[in-house]
Amino acid sequence: MNQTRARVMAGEPFAICNGDEFEEIFIAMDIPVLAINYWNFLIGAKEQGPHYTKVLNDRGYVGEHFFGWGLASTMSPENAPWGGLPKPSLICGSVRSEMELRVTELWAREFGCPCYPLDFSFPSPPFQALPEDWWNYTRNEWDKLVDPARLRLRVQQERTLTNYVEQLTGRNLSVTELVRSMDLLNRQMDYWANARTLIGSAPKCPVHIRDQMSMYQAMWHRGTEVGLDLVRDYYQEVEGRVKNGIGAYKQEKFRLYYHSQIPPWHDYIEEKYGAVTVANFYSGIPDLYARTVRDNDPFEALAARHLFLFGFNAARIVKEAVEHRCDAVIVIEAFNEGYPSIEQSQVEAAGIPYLALPREADDAQIRSLLENFIEQRLLKQR
């Protein structure tokens, strides 16, 4: 951020945008770009979330405001990481939700810069039914995951925004550079996928789930040489640990897939039962971002990814659990006795024990549910 600040102070452009919306275009134009979610997570890591929630509450925006922390950090920059953000040339928002678009509008007003909204993004459901194994289509057959009319509209919108950025900043987009950036991203995903395969097949899980999650930070450098180096180094370290028989956990008796981020109760069940998380929702990242550019035109491939990024279905959970040789799957969902969810039905049909937890917390009730599940479903099978 210090380098970015120095570049901005010297008169160079700088942009802020929603995650997974438009970063590749800015990167290809050599415009430093900050993804909003990255900044908000950084504020959380600095334990400034409560402070900035209060800043927003005091301004009349009542409630919990993770997405609005960046806006609040501009309202009160003295406590922000690196002293706050420099003034951007523009903020790129989207109608991913009305709240997010409103935050970017208010943030741009606070900075005194333009806010450019994109019409829709990857949460928009497609009109046609998706293949259950959608992850096998994302890279090379991405046109089968998006509606043609929406894709044409999205491409037009992104070209229009690119023209606006060119006029605003005086920078020109090189299509060759954008193709190169997307190729770098594909190579990043290849290294990440190879590391995932090693984690899944190794006798001992070589990488703690916390360290696996930390690699997601490389996605804020996607499509760059820096991002490629980060993921390549990660793969090489995983490869070395597997070759040397190094495990990440003191005792590994049961392997778990957790359909969220990092379990707050993880250390407890590892110490008591040797139950360790070897995969989670983010283990599927290598299937999500890579897109093959056709006919040397990157706009369609990039727009297709903007329209379809995450697929939420039970088949994906089963895929990750099987590939990581998991003994059980744990999902946060409401439990209805006698009426299992689609996820539970498909996971158990695959022969994998399934536990539904009512919330993501570490308290007496959650620990009791975990203990009963492990003792009744896992220990008795050994």
From TrEMBL:
Belongs to the FldB/FldC dehydratase alpha/beta subunit family. InterPro entries: FldB/FldC_alpha/beta (IPR010327). It holds the Pfam family HGD-D. This is 2-hydroxyacyl-CoA dehydratase. It comes from Paraburkholderia antibiotica. Gene3D superfamilies: 3.40.50.11900.
